[in-house]
Amino acid sequence: MSVNSLSFSARNRSARRAHGYSDNQLIQLFLSVNDRSKHTIKNYALSLRRFQAFIAPKQLGEATWRDIEEFKQHLMVGTFSKNGRPLSPATVATQLSSIRSFYKWASDPNIRFMSHNPSTCIRIPRVKVTSMNHYLTKTDLSKLLAALREQGIRDYLIGLMLVLLGLRVSELTAVKWEDFYTDPSESSVWLTIPNGKGGKSREVKVPALLWRMISANRNSLSTGSRLFPITSRQVERIIEKARVKCRLHKRVTPHWLRHTNATLALLNGATLQQVQENLGHSQLNTTQRYLHTIKLLEKAAPDFVEKGIADIIQGTDCEQWGC
What we know:
Residues 131-303 form the Tyr recombinase domain. The protein is mainly alpha-helical. The chain has helices at residues 3-19, 23-32, 38-55, 65-77, 89-106, 138-151, 153-165, 169-174, 208-216, 218-221, 232-245, 254-267, 272-279, 284-288, 290-296, 301-308, 310-313, 316-321; strands spanning 180-182, 189-193, 202-206. The protein folds into two domains: 3-106, DNA polymerase, domain 1; 138-296, hpI Integrase, Chain A, CATH 1.10.443.10. It has a three-stranded antiparallel sheet with strand order 1-2-3. Helix 3 (38-55) crosses helix 5, helix 4 (65-77) packs antiparallel against helix 5 and helix 7 packs across helix 12.
């Protein structure tokens, strides 16, 4: 071991003795001060425990960038997966982001549990965006909603709330009656999402027609505080059942309806900022992905070329081949 490595380990052992916390206590403290959703906290804990076991008997404060890099390589080849298959770039990125967040917090000058952040040089795998085409056409949506309507008012309202409000499925199942409220002028109804992604809250406007349907069927929906007292997995099954019934060949999920919400909103004149606020995106560039879909509906170069030579390909060609 080099002199620099010995010096680095000694500094971190001294820091650990000074603050008096074990690695497990540090992880627990980090999780407790994070204002994140329960799902995010659970992922943080899993990633950190896994990395802690990987570098043992080293302490977290003794880890180097090489330890984290080797951990990343093991994730990418599938060492930690149940079936031995490589983990997806998105999963690897999530695990590494948890570790980077921990070390950034622990090495903060105002916290100073660790004297060095070994994760600063670690590159997160690039995650390919595949959700841009995950939307339903108007015809698809009509078929799906008709199938949901046949399944009952609860299932129909679940589909309407997902596509009209752009909710995440976890947000939908957490909605309580008390989360609805009217604005000061009593001209519209709003829904508070108190614990969205990242623990952030936001306000979503409820269209008048949707609210009338929700209010009219309150007694048949639930007698408790939650609007839909079911799990996210049950919602997924409800959507899948309707998809099969109406014979849609697309892989429709509740999140597809969220993408459909954004696509239809932009297509019908909503601004990027409006869609960003409604969906609860922290970064505008996340919302900008939907612009790709909208641009597909606009005139492209081939349309202009066709217009320019239409007189050449019309006439006898149309009579022979059909136009």
